[in-house]
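Q: Here's a chain of 298 amino acids. Please give me its 3D structure as tokens.
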Amino acid sequence: MKQLAIIGSTASGKSDFALTLAQEMNALILSIDSLSIYKTIDIASAKPSPKERATIEHFGIDVLLPHETASVFTFIDEYHRIIQTAAEHEKNVIIVGGSSFYLKSMLDGLSYLPPITQETKTIASNMLHDVEKSYHFLAAVDPVTMTKIAPTDPYRIEKMLHLYLQTSIPPSQWFATHPPKPIITHCPILALTMERSLLRERIALRTTKMIASGLIDEVAQLERLYGRSPNSMKAIGMIETLDFLDGKISLDHLVTLISTHTAQLAKRQNTFNTHQFSAAHHGSVEGLYDIGKALLTF
């Protein structure tokens, strides 16, 4: 079994490239995407269609319900599943997705975390009724760790609170004595690049297609079922559509806002990929195709 990862900004053609390469090189696909992981978020996530997924088995898609929270551990579980399946069926593995910070975390490794008891979770839950107070409590215990965490980041505050309450050890000391171990090793990376004006055109076209395919109805249904509080409902495409449903913006403004915010996201993704994956093979689909085939050849 061989593996590689394909990264790139949203709308850069990652999924199509991965599908073509997987079909030719006997590979399974692991999607690392912060929205495709959710069931019923189909249009907003621009996940591969059921027809596309029928030709190549995909992992990391339709795993959680929209009210659940995805984390790097969600994708670690999916990675272990795809590796086991690939080994059993003598397949290669292609990892693809725009949420490349998850890939970075798995390549760099994660520290061992102790099991968190229900008692600890209950204490933390009560403390987190006041997130700001919980933040300052942790900052007094471990200023080294908390300077890296925003006071408005309840997810990470909760994780550090669990760790400290469970172990009575400041998180920075815990991580110093439990260094990270990589989850993914020996995984070359192909980083797709595209001329900025062309990427903006692709983003605008995709946004128009999403609206025409029923994005507004999808978001309205998701709101009816799950409300607006889940993290999944705060993604680009979702928050703008909710504003449209509230009557705050017009349909034309909706298209413009989604396109603009998606282009801004693409710029951040490209910046992250350039700085965090300097050893990757950078180029267009055409320029990386033969490299990808060679990397997956036994």
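Q: Can you summarize the key feature?
A: The longest strand covers residues 3-7.
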